[in-house]
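Usage

Read records sequentially. Each one opens with the input sequence:
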Amino acid sequence: MENTTNNRLEPVNVPDPDKTISCMAAVIPGNAPEDSYTSQAVMDRLKQATLFNLEKLGYDEENDCPVATVCYEGEIYEFQFDYNQFQMSEMFRISHHLNEENKKLLEGADTALYVNMYYGSDPLKSFHLQLKVLETIYPENIAIADYSAFTVYSPMWVKLAAESTVPPSPDYLYSVHGVRGSDENKNIKEEDVQVWFHTHGLNRCGFSELEILDSTIKNSNNHYNLLNGMARRSVSDRALVEEGECLFLAQTQQNGPVITTWVNWEEVIDSYPENIPGGRKDRDNDDHNGKTGIVYLYLSQEDYENKKYSPVTIIPEEDYENLLIMYSSDETARMSALARERISYLKKGLQLEKSSSIVKMTIPVDEELREEAGTDWEHI
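and closes with the structure output:
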């Protein structure tokens, strides 16, 4: 390790201009000693890191904070560290169960250690590394606040994820927010109230955020799953399809494949009523007028060739009953690897009284039956 304290580091790689900084923070309990989260404390812990390789450690005089260069699985990353005030935003959602002690500590917390980085070529690997760095510099955290995805993770989950050799699920990397419209119109049934879904967190991957407009409470779960499936697939594939290009996202039992695409919001926003959730009137907020696109469907090859977009609301409700959303081979392998790594937890849990479990297994088909079955594997 090269110590370059008091010398500003030269950039190792030029950040992709399409990517935003990923900002996450280790929330510090109010009763923590002040010397546990100073710049020196951060640097001392980085020197003892075991979850990644520390290449360089320095101090950014201009921004008055420690900086580090890290090598992880053959790729170089740069980090900036700072401690500052912490306040829970109303936009944050808590993604894990917090015990009562953690809830009280989180409510009373006013300081956090912030870790900023640009993601590399693999967003999920980068996210996993950021968790490892956060766990290294402040393992006593009471929560991790992900400002890019507006999500709070529990300290138990962060420790488990950071120490794992397998990255967490892609859908930890972003969040999907739903905004419902007004139900002041007494002539509108509750189930028909409009809903606007949009993601937070994909910009740090270099992708457009994704949205679905003009959903309803009745169909909100279906449209949420569709949007979440497209976002998750993009993270797993390490790329979002180009604007206007097609993605084979899902298969319906009745009407064949679901082919999705996306279009920059500015191109199509005026085709929607101004006052619906996510309409023109909601675009004054900087969080929703940047790099974000609205999800559409292609219903045929001809539609794709003519760039004729159809709203996702056109899918009949019955098509969602047995909708099969496609997973990439990489994601299937990741889930399998994580299941193997954590199978001991399942075994311990099944020893508890009245416990039960559902397990998906893949078993090889007998060699003489594979041609007839059309596959080498059977899933049960």
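Summary fields computed downstream for this record:
- Confidence is low (pLDDT under 50) at residues 1-14.
- The two ends are 49 Å apart (CA to CA).
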